[in-house]
Amino acid sequence: MTQPVSIIMIEDDEGHARLIERNIRRSGVNNEIVPFTNGTDAMKHLFGADGSGLVQKGNALLILLDLNLPDMTGINILKQIKENKYLKASPVVVLTTTDDSQEIKRCYELGCNVYITKPVNYENFANAIRQLGLFFSVIQVPPAAT
Amino acid sequence: MTAAAQRRRATWQILLFSAGLLVLTVISAGSVYLVNKARDDNAWVVHTIEVENQVNSLLLEVRRAESGARGYLLTNGPEFLSDHQKAVAEIIPALDKLTRLVGDNPVQRDGIERLSAAIEARLGQFGQEVDLVRQGQPERATAMVREAAAQNVTATIRQIADGMMREEERLFRLRSANSDRSQTLAASMTGIGSGLVVVLALISIFLVRRSARARDDAEARLRDANVNLEAVVDERTADLREANNEIQRFAYIVSHDLRSPLVNIMGFTSELEELGGDIFRRIGGLSHVAADGPPLASGEIALEGPDKQLSADFSEALGFIKSSIAKMDRLISAILHLTREGRREFEPEKIDTREFVTTVVSTLAHQAAEAHATIQVEPLPNIISDRLALEQIFSNLIDNAIKYLRDGVAGEIRIRGRTKLGYAIFEISDNGRGIDPKDHQRIFDLFRRAGLQDRPGQGIGLAHVRALVRRLGGTMSVSSELNAGSTFTITLPITWNASNRNAE
Fold it and tell me: Which B residues, 418 through 457, put their C-beta within 8 Å of a C-beta on chain A?
């Protein structure tokens, strides 16, 4: 990546988070990965204490989002990111266990950029994440302010 | 109202009716009898009066005869003689008649005998008197009259007649009293009977009104019960629907949440496997170097002895873990799939069933050819239903029929259809290996299979098909014997609409 892009990983399952991180690293991505295990902390980080999103102004973010969180749904977070004027340009990758077509459709409608279903088969899982990492290494991410 | 009470009331009504009939009969019979008796009594009264009249007229004729005889004696006028003779001619028949009339009464018979004797004596005297006058001897006739007066025969006659009259008077009183009594009796009998009938009628009316009221009450209760029943059915249906939805949500969430840890288990197992590979490679490398020599370049170095055994055990354990996880993943996926199907909205459309099934069969033609099976689609009734659901139902059942044929027997699969009372009935029958009757229920359960386990499968197909058939408002059954083929019967409403089932 041309700019120091931080990857915000919102994933309630620490095991998953670890596996994702490992496989991203294996694909040669060395960007900072900021992990969150619940929606509230992630929201606070993304939107700041005032909830305006001003804190992220000028930062280039890439958001990895799980839909099943203990305190809120990922769809809700996705919606708020895409409605926020500072964050809406940041790419959001939904990485979740759900392969329900309704949910996939809804996420794309809300502005999600990539939707990936976590394969249970680990080879496929590792493969998918590594390819995602390769994708990360070539993607252009705009800074969060306009 | 209990059955016993109803029976009692019916018995009462029959009893009342019988009693009324009995009373009427008794009154009728009694009335006929009493009226007859009153008529008889009246006849006797009339008879008595007749007797009295007859006695009086007899006495009158005797007087007339006497006065005629006297007139003739005094005046010698022929008109008096004819008068006398006419009266005498009347006396005998009158006496005969009187004798007939009082023939039934011994007292009066006795009186009449005496009366006849007296009258005959008197008539004899008259005859002598008249004869003497005719012969021109009026003195002797006068003497005879005097003699007759002295004998007082006329007085005797009157006396006897008076006696008879008294007897008749007595009889008259007696018979009048009898007649009165009969009439009073008849009147009171009719009166009492009518009263009784009126009372019975009133009781009957009361009972009829009471039973009518009871019937009205029962009807009202029945109506209420019907209304209630519908409400209860609606309520239960809503409850069931809610429970079903709850289970759907539950299954979805559970299977979904089960998947997450599975990813971890699988992921870290793979990591562990890799790690294990690294460790055993290092062990192999280390065991082959000389004590002070440099480590060998990493590469494929065969392990030996106990190290090899350890490596094999390690791989075996990981292999079991991974295959179990894979299986668990398949099961969870199946549950997810089923619950997702359960939540899908149906879109009913008109389906040319025969053409539709033929299409389904053509997609399975390859498998059928491989199994040497022929599939016959007979004419099928058209229905309005969800195309996707029907496709899954038919393709699952036909696929099963192809899958479980008997080895060495050419497969014959037949799809038949007919309609009955707003339902279309489809039968998919084969000549395959069949299903033991004890497994007929089991094969519809999720993850359960029956018979020889020589074909791949998860035990999901029939559970899925049955769930779909139920959601389409239909039923499904199987009839089969081991080694004698199976017939799956599906009954579906000809026109599916959301109210059939699962309207949400």
Answer: none
Strand, helix or coil for residue A100: coil
- B271 part of contact set with chain A, CB < 8 Å: yes
Chain B residues touching A120 at Cβ < 8 A: 259, 262-263, 266, 325-326, 329
Residues of B in contact with A123 (CB under 8 A): 270
Residue where a domain stops, chosen among B185, B216, B231: B231
φ, ψ for residue B119, nearest 5 deg: -65, -40
Q: Which CATH number does the domain housing residue B372 bear? A: 3.30.565.10
DSSP letter (8 states) at residue A68 = B
Q: A97: which residues sit within 8 A by CB, 6+ positions away? A: A68, A117, A118, B256, B259, B260, B263
The reply to whether the predicted model has a pTM over 0.80 is: no
Placement of tokens 């429970």 in the chain: B243
Give, to the nearest 10 degrees, the angle between helix B153-288 and helix B106-134.
150
Do B334 and B364 lie in one domain? The reply is: no
Q: What is the domain count for chain B?
A: 3
Q: Retrieve residue A40's tokens.
A: 């509230």
Token reading at A129 = 């994440």
Residue-wise pLDDT tens digits, B279-332: 988 888 887 765 555 555 555 566 777 888 888 888 899 989 988 888 888 888
DSSP state of B269: H
β pairing state of B383-386 and B348-351: antiparallel
- Name the residue range of residue B482's domain: 349-500
- Interface with chain A: mutation pick from B248, B259, B318, B341, highest number of A CBs within 10 Å: B259
